[in-house]
Amino acid sequence: MRQELKLVKEKLKTLNEGIKTLAHEFTCPLLCLEQGVLFPRHTNCLKMLLLTKMKTVAVAGDGYKYDLRALQRYIKNNLNKRLVSPMTGKPMTAVARYFVKTKKSGRIEMWMPGLSQLA
């Protein structure tokens, strides 16, 4: 019984580390900024890692990956000034490309702020 419990604990630890590894890989710098966490991934707190995980991965005009909704908020909030990359501080375009799954495969979609968001 003790040996089985020890094996279960080891398996749980391994699974927990795997979850943390994946969460680190999909951490969004904009979500980190919103949550007050330094990027790149200066935390091992699973709760915080999951809060800053990208739900829909989007590639911005700077070539970096962000959570789609966080990127849209960032672009909308910075339209009245020069839009710069949150990662590099260099100018970037107000565009997001993301993958949409369809019944058979999927397609790449592009989002840009509409005219109503520019006013």
Q: How many strand segments?
A: 4
Shape designation: elongated
Helix-strand sequence: HHHEEHEEH
What count of domains describes the coordinates? 2
Structural class: alpha+beta
Strand order of the largest sheet: 2-1-3-4
What's the pLDDT, averaged over the residues?
Answer: 87
Cα radius of gyration in angstroms: 18 Å
- What's the story with the biggest beta sheet? 4 strands, antiparallel
Treating each run of at least 4 consecutive H or I residues as one helix, how many helices? 5
Secondary structure: helix percent: 40-55%
* Proportion of beta-strand residues: 15-25%
Q: Give the low-pLDDT segments.
A: none
First-residue to last-residue Cα separation: 67 Å
What does the model show?
The protein has 119 residues and is of the alpha+beta class. The protein has two domains: 1-53, no CATH class; 54-119. Helices cover 43% and strands 16% of the residues. It contains five helices and four strands; from the N terminus they run αααββαββα. The chain has helices at residues 2-25, 29-35, 46-51, 68-77, 115-118, and strands at residues 57-60, 65-67, 96-101, 106-111. Strand 3 (96-101) and strand 4 (106-111) form a beta hairpin. The longest helix is centred in the N-terminal third of the chain and has 24 residues, at 2-25.
Task: Give the key terms.
119 residues, alpha+beta, four-stranded antiparallel beta sheet, 5 helices, elongated
What's the helix and strand layout?
Layout: H1 2-25, H2 29-35, H3 46-51, E1 57-60, E2 65-67, H4 68-77, E3 96-101, E4 106-111, H5 115-118
Antiparallel strand pairs: 1-2, 1-3, 3-4
